[in-house]
Design goal:
two-stranded antiparallel sheet, 2 helices
Length: 227
């Protein structure tokens, strides 16, 4: 019996305190240092590419948003002119040489020419009497801080003090823009016609490194029946 137990004891795994210890010859493998370095390098390159794409998209979004804001400003300028011209009376066209030496954002000028309704084919300044009885003047004037061919739109609500209505990012081509006034009964005779003003604005919008040309034209007729 003792020999049998000793024989089986050699064949069985060794035990200690009730736990069985199993011996294994399996080989454990893992990543080498070179493989880890390659993986980290690839992850870094992909991260840089993704971050660069995100920054590029974000920058493009900011530029588009800035351009949209400037376009909204141009639309506001047009809406302001159209509203006051439509509801106003007594359209006056001023000489084309007026306001050629304006200040960038604000200036004063005395309107000594003409103060009665008059027509013009290519004027740069128009005045009118608003629905509230005040004098409103719009002028396309050269901004000396830009150059001699680029203008901005100025507005006066008393006929003397003018302020810039459009920002510097909106560069109006002085040679291709202007006002046409007709139907007032003087100048270009359109008697029996309802007075109207044709607005022509041409130029480009510059925002950072983006330039976008624009051309806007609309005709506004006096709402009050011309008698």
């Amino acid at each position: 019996m003792k020999n049998f137990l000793n024989k089986n004891k050699k064949a069985c795994p060794s035990t200690r305190r009730g736990f069985t210890r199993t011996l294994s010859n399996a080989k454990v493998s893992g990543f080498t240092l070179i493989e880890m370095m390659i993986a980290v390098a690839l992850f870094t390159i992909l991260s840089l590419i993704i971050i660069g794409a995100i920054l590029s998209v974000n920058s493009a979004h900011k530029k588009v948003s800035g351009m949209a804001t400037i376009m909204n400003n141009l639309n506001f300028v047009m809406d302001d002119m159209v509203f006051n011209m439509r509801t106003g009376i007594g359209y006056v066209c001023y000489p084309t040489t007026f306001f050629l030496n304006s200040l960038p954002d604000y200036f004063s000028a005395s309107l000594s020419v003409p103060n009665s309704p008059s027509d013009c084919q290519n004027g740069y300044t128009v005045g009118l009497t608003s629905a509230y009885g005040t004098t409103i003047v719009y002028a396309i004037a050269v901004d000396p801080s830009l150059n001699s061919t680029v203008g901005r739109i100025y507005k006066s609500e008393d006929g003397n003090n003018f302020y810039a209505l459009s920002p510097k990012e909106i560069e109006i081509d002085f040679a291709k823009s202007g006002f046409t006034v007709a139907g007032t009964g003087t100048g270009i005779t359109f008697d029996g016609k309802q007075p109207f003003i044709a607005i022509r604005l041409s130029g480009k919008i510059k925002y950072k490194d983006i330039e976008s040309p624009f051309r806007v034209q609309t005709t506004v007729s006096q709402r009050q029946i011309d008698s």
